[in-house]
Amino acid sequence: MFTRSRIVAVAAAGAVLLATLAAPAGARSAGSDDGRGVYSVPTADAAQRSAVAGTGVDVLGSRDGRLTFVATDEQARTLRARGFRLNEIGDFDEMLAERSGRAATSAAVADFPPGDEAYHTYAEMTAKLRAAERGHPALASVSSVGRSYEGRELHLIKISDNVTRDEAEPEVLFTCNQHAREHLTTEMCLHLVERFTTGYGSDPAIRALVDSREIYVIPQVNPDGSEYDIAGGTYKGWRKNRQGRGTDPNRNWDYRWGCCGGSSGNPASDTYRGTAPFSAPETRAVAGFVDSRVVGGRQQITAHIDFHSYSELVLWPYGYTYADTAPGMTQAQARRFADIGRQMARANGYQPQQSSDLYITDGSVNDWMWGEHGILSYTYEMYPRSSSGLNGFYPPASVIPRETARNDEAVDILLRAAG
Ligand code: 3K0
Ligand code: CA
Ligand code: CA
Ligand code: ZN
User: Fold this and answer.
1) Which residue in the list 187, 381, 403, 409 is annotated as catalytic?
2) What is the distance in A from the centroid of ligand 4 to the CA of 3?
3) Is residue 21 part of a domain?
4) Residue 146 and residue 212 share a domain
5) What is the pTM of this model?
6) Does residue 257 form part of some domain?
7) Residuewise pLDDT in 10s, the chain (419 residues)
8) Which residue has the least CA distance to atom 7 on ligand 1?
9) How far apart are CA 128 and CA 172, in angstroms?
10) What strands, in cross-sheet order, belong to the sheet with 58-63?
């Protein structure tokens, strides 16, 4: 007689066979391994969260001490053996399939799954930037900081008065979508572009900011990962870039890279730091752009936000150490990070904290921006505040206007602080 588990085993074997036929050799990565569950666990402090994250599990979100993550059966066993009280929420693949709905028939990236079409694919994002430039040639200028691993242009849009000139105005950078599945962040960057271009003519406050700053926006730092995540019309819960088995861009920056147990050396891990600092073409390209803004020995970019999702947090460096002060971070500087971070969090209703209060990270973008260039660099973890798992990365498209506009005032606070 067929037991349920035998049916599952046969179905799984079929799925593996289909995947083998459909995908080029090597295309299936650790991210598609069988037997992954979504879990949550209560933690007492950042040390416990770092201990969980440090096993290389895929952390989805963290609020009020509860960490939500994806783990293999083996990782879950290890954590339970160490005394963590894991609560299993569901099966990784089943939860994704449920969220994606009916799969599209084509493997091409046509659009997001039914109902989510308002999210922008790479092609749609590109078109939107070009339209902003066409509609506001004196204000907006599109260029590229380089190419992704798979060869996509990493688009950069500059927004300022006299946009074609390099004026002596504080420069502020916004980056989005380092993590592939965090699609709401791409919308956040596109919202910034929309607001600072179309709002210029009608809103005096916007005009004042755009006239006195040079605003740079990179809507997709990791377009390969993002496109992969929606390919074929089903979400894959993919985090990393698409180089080999994938590198976590936010562990690949060249500041205390791999120093402190805040990343993984295992290519299968979702926090794999890569073979070397800036081994990912995407981080190298963005860093190259930032390096290029040192003009006359002075870094022109004074402030930066990297948008992520989810958990509704405002984070500041350092991530590699629990200490508030460390080499390159004086007491006064740490206080300034916290002050501005708290102001921004009051404006958007997020929770403000040092990055390492979440868990230890090393090779993150904030640590590099500050440690290497003295840029006031924050990470925003966007909506939702918490989620039972993967759905947190795929909020319905109906929330895009509200959850992007929610950051208007916080963003303006940073733009003003950049002066
Ligand atoms: O600086 C940070 O603490 C980054 C947090 C970020 C990360 O890279 O681990 N959280 S996310 O991956 O869930 N977006
Ligand atoms: Ca200007
Ligand atoms: Ca300038
Ligand atoms: Zn992220």
Assistant:
1) 381
2) 40
3) yes
4) yes
5) 0.90
6) yes
7) 444 444 444 444 444 444 333 333 333 334 445 689 999 999 999 999 999 999 999 999 999 999 999 999 999 999 999 999 999 999 999 999 888 875 555 555 689 999 999 999 999 999 999 999 999 999 999 999 999 999 999 999 999 999 999 999 999 999 999 999 999 999 999 999 999 999 999 999 999 999 999 999 999 999 999 999 999 999 999 999 999 999 999 999 999 999 999 999 999 999 999 999 999 999 999 999 999 999 999 999 999 999 999 999 999 999 999 999 999 999 999 999 999 999 999 999 999 999 999 999 999 999 999 999 999 999 999 999 999 889 999 999 999 999 999 999 999 999 999 99
8) 250
9) 21
10) 58-63, 66-72, 36-42, 87-91
Looking at the fold, whether 84 and 172 belong to one and the same domain comes out as no
Q: Are 287 and 213 within one domain?
A: yes
Instruction: Let me know whether 80 and 143 are in one domain.
Output: no
From 63, 360, 364, mutation site for ligand 1 pocket: most ligand atoms within 8 A of C-beta: 364
- Which residue's CA is minimally distant from atom 14 of ligand 1? 308
Q: Choose the residue to mutate in 361, 383, 386, 387 for probing ligand 1, maximizing ligand atoms within 8 Å of C-beta.
A: 361
| Residue 364 CB less than 6 A away from ligand 1 | yes
Mutation probe of ligand 1 site: the residue of 188, 337, 354, 381 with most atoms within 8 A of C-beta: 381
In a domain, residue 235? The reply is yes
Query: How far is 278 from 260, CA to CA, in rounded Å?
Result: 17
Residues 394, 417: Cα–Cα separation, whole Å: 32
Q: At what angle do helices 122-135 and 183-198 cross, to 10 degrees?
A: 10
- CATH value at residue 86: 3.30.70.340
Residue 283, in any domain of the structure: yes
Ligand 1 centre and the CA of 310: distance in Å? 9
- How far apart are the CA of 412 and the centre of ligand 1, in A? 23
Domain residues for 89?
Answer: 15-100
User: How far, in Å, CA of 381 to CA of 96, rounded?
Assistant: 21
Residue with tokens 């002066």: 419
Give nearest CA residue, ligand 1 atom 1. Answer: 355
- Under 8 Å between Cβ of 94 and 38: no
Number of domains in the chain: 2
